[in-house]
């Protein structure tokens, strides 16, 4: 054994004295290994030049191990180790911690045109996923710097089985071309349900906005992008959405838990400085969660909408053609929030006329509940909920009472429903039409409304919806950081910022759904939250459509679980997964890291 190897072992392992132990920060010391049951989680992580050098830093290795243990399957990228041993040591270290539920690994050959070649690797829990095959894509024209590495998995924990993961780390200068080529890769997979994952370099100077219309992976409706363009996946001071998940296939679409696709900010989670985090990587891991197996078969069972009808009162209700279109729109749904009711007449006859028209020859009629007239000015408005009693039981409704100030121009209108036909059996819906110039503050204060509702009803599952005025000049990009409803992980935004909810020539995502609560997230039909373009559906000109409203309705569907026969009848495919993960202090991993790294150097000595 070389002296350097002995000295390194001593330095890494220490002599074990009390004084040595006291030098280790408290959160680095040995702690209890806690295991909690969670859904099946998939990750992708660019480790940034992972090799021998990085494996000698025990703090860095401990953090990497903690990150890996979050996932049931994780794609690791930018492995640069000419000796080919660092990744094996990492796997052994991970399994020394996760000995009761160990990982297996598959790794690609070394890829790249330059001397600095890279490898991909998949770590996966062998108890929860079975590798069917893995291979490097055979690129006929040498169009990829590093050809995609494909792994096909089967799993009894995921109803969508088999599924393929296509890992890629694009060359920055060729990013948009390589991303475009993934459609060709998809056609040759022979697997319907696919996840494309990795460091796409899909933002900033590498893929500017004008390029997206040239990228078929973006324009083809088969592909759904889970990480939005405004999400920063970098640890440094850049603000770029380089790392992405793109999914394809009905089964995969139905199995992804809404809003679970996210960046895992390990610096915040593990209380690291930016410098310490950059020692680990300049990228954050990205992740998403797959729903449990019971969601394999489900069908839509309740449709919900929110519609700003734009000055709905005596004038509009007197236009028969407009009222006919409104009635058609209303009858698409089981629950509708109507906003901007301005009818100064007693007992709001415009709303009653709409109810009569909607219910005419309707075997499943609506009832409605309406708020008081709200607003600080003389031009006050009302909210109303139209709902079908055959599907929903109204428990109570009320206008939110502000106790800490006067933040809302029109306070949210809250309704509490029981829903026997859906997976989520009880939920609360809060409708709001914000004052445009105060939109940031009003949206932010919906967090306080949520907290108050929870205290009042002890109901976790809540939908906020309505005309938030949440885009363009009213909520600019720089203001999103001021909105707790956006930054608080409890809340899931279902209408993205790039969706146009306006009828006229503007392009603004004013109208939104925001949900909170595990059951409501699980109970949403994936990708059902959308805009209903009634002008296209009913063949209206822009002028005719504008007579109805300057907003489109937004809509979503809740689902019920069913058996395979009903599922096949509805022609809906849903898939899911379930797994277990480890939460632990860094101390336990640090000790394991020191031992494994020392063994590595002893072997090399």
Automatic annotation (TrEMBL):
Q: Which GO terms describe its molecular function?
A: deoxyribonuclease I activity; DNA binding
Asked if Nuclease is a keyword of the record, the answer is: yes
Q: Which PROSITE patterns match?
A: DNASE_I_2
- Where does the signal sequence lie? 1-19
Tell me the keywords, alphabetical order: Disulfide bond, Hydrolase, Nuclease, Signal
The record places domain Endonuclease/exonuclease/phosphatase at: 54-251, 306-550
Gene3D superfamilies named among the record's database cross-references: Endonuclease/exonuclease/phosphatase
Transmembrane domains' residue ranges: none
The family note in this entry says:
Belongs to the DNase I family.
Protein name as annotated: Endonuclease/exonuclease/phosphatase domain-containing protein
Report the GO terms under cellular component.
Answer: nucleus
Entry-linked InterPro entries:
DNase_I (IPR016202), DNASE_I_2 (IPR033125), Endo/exonu/phosph_ase_sf (IPR036691), Endo/exonuclease/phosphatase (IPR005135)
Q: Which GO terms describe its biological process?
A: DNA catabolic process
Superkingdom of the source?
Eukaryota
- UniProt key word Transmembrane helix: no
Q: Which Pfam families match?
A: Exo_endo_phos
SUPFAM superfamilies referenced in this protein's UniProt entry, alphabetically: DNase I-like
